[in-house]
Amino acid sequence: MKKSLLLLLFLLAILLIGCTPNVHTSSNDITTISVEITEPHTTEAPEILETDETITEGTTLYETSAEVSTETPTEPPTEPPTEPPTETPTETPTETPTEPPSNTNERDLYYSELVNQAIAENRKVVYLTFDDGSSTLTPSVLNILDEYGVHATFFVVGAHSLGDENAQTMYNEIINRGHSLGIHSFTHNRADIYASLEAFSEDCNKMYDYVIKLTGYTPFLWRFPGGSATMYADHRMQTEYIPYVESKGLTYYDWNVSSGDGSRDACSTDIYNNVINGVMKRNVSVVLLHDGSGHEDTINALPDILDTLINELNCLVVPITESTTPVQSYKN
Ligand SMILES: [Zn+2]
Is 225 part of a structural domain of the chain? Predict the structure, then answer.
């Protein structure tokens, strides 16, 4: 009995000893497992870093865009100083040239700009036109215009101009003193001129060639004797005479203000009143006056007319040039 009890105890002791080493190894096994578990984490970690790198590449893109945004604030300070100086110099050099250019194209441009500027400023524009000269009165008209520093348009008639020598002197004087020279037929004899296209063209050509011969200047302005609405011309005005002058490169000009100086009854006061009242009614006036012989009242009225137009009404008084809008009164 004792032997079997001892054996049992021995066996129990062995069992107890044998159990502890087993527990140790199992705990070792657990640590190795835990190591094995952390290892995949460390291998995954670099992959995450790689994706992080692509993100950091993205952030460098953000940085460059941030660089662009840092450039923009440098622009505004450069803008304000550049704006004010560009405005001031354009305002100063406007109406400095006092003498109109003699070159035809430059002269036309010069007056076009003056007229456009005057219209923009609500100033009235006045074209003074003198018909039926030249005569012994023409030098007085030129002197009065000089006194007021303005230029006009002269529609001359060859047969009225007191011979070739006087005609040559006066036509050139008109041009050289800055006025426009237009033609108004050679004879001014309306009954003859409007009798037929043949008669009309013969007279028109004679005057056209006469001006070229005496001045070397090619006319571009025409005024029909009696105007385009003259009772001397019938429907042929539209079908024959107007097309004819235009075929010669002439532009015809009528008027929208008459001084009334064609009437023998008109005194200088009447002429003055007719011109001023007519100009007051419109923005752009083409005024009919005469410097042919017998029109002393016109010359007497002229200083007062210019004084009122320039100093009281602040009108721009200019000659007709190539680009002046024509006043044409012919009606069907
Ligand atoms: Zn006339």
Answer: yes
For residue 223, report the distance from its CA to the centre of ligand 1, in Å. 8
Which residue, chain included where needed, has tokens 């050679």?
186
pLDDT tens for each residue of 182-197: 999 999 999 999 999 9
CB under 5 Å of ion ligand 1: residues: 131-132
- End-to-end, the C-alpha distance of the chain in Å comes to 162
Q: Give the separation between CA 315 and CA 5, rounded to whole angstroms.
A: 149
The SS3 call for residue 128 is strand
Number of domains observed in the structure of the chain: 1
| Residue 99 Cα distances to 62, 142, 178, angstroms | 65, 16, 9
CATH classification of the domain holding 140 = 3.20.20.370
Distance CA 192, CA 208 (A): 18
Reported as a single tens digit per residue, the pLDDT across 155-184 is 999 999 999 999 999 999 999 999 999 999
CA of 87 to the centre of ligand 1 (A): 49
